[in-house]
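Our preliminary data section would be incomplete without showing what the modeling component actually yields. Below, a chain of 158 amino acids is followed by its predicted structure, encoded as tokens that our downstream tools consume directly.
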Amino acid sequence: MDRQIANEKTEIDASTGLTKAAAKNDARRSSHSDHLMCGTPLWGVAGFLGCAYFAWSSFGHVTRGEYEWPHDYWTAATYIVWIVLLAALALDTRCVRERIFFGVLVGNFLVGFSVTLWHGISVSDVRLARIGTGALWALAALVSLTTLRGAPGIHNND
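Predicted structure:
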């Protein structure tokens, strides 16, 4: 067994010029994206505009005194789908800026999911949830702007 491991470490793959062990590690690393949003300004701008709209909408509900929240199971199921999707995106990227962006969105959707399941929630708690989710949307909008810088080493000399 030890000889097999030693031989694997020293055998060089002719196509890549790497040892077989290094080639396996390289293949594992390339299965995940380093950057999903960085280096493509369209995604950073789209993230900013979408999150800014939802922040504006959340704060608009507060200023108009609209504190109703849907409490049906289809809304809860929709929140679950978004939470799973955003968590997968956060885990797929290696970029800290993108992980923070997707993490803030996961937190926001967890709040929404919790309020959706909480049928006996008071109006003051819904108001706080609207303010909290508005703040999380605004934070996500700002974090999405950090991805406009591009991926380090791709488009600039970061």
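The helical segments are 2-10, 20-30, 41-63, 73-92, 96-117, 123-146. Confidence is low (pLDDT under 50) at residues 154-158. Preliminary results of this kind motivate Aim 1 of the renewal.
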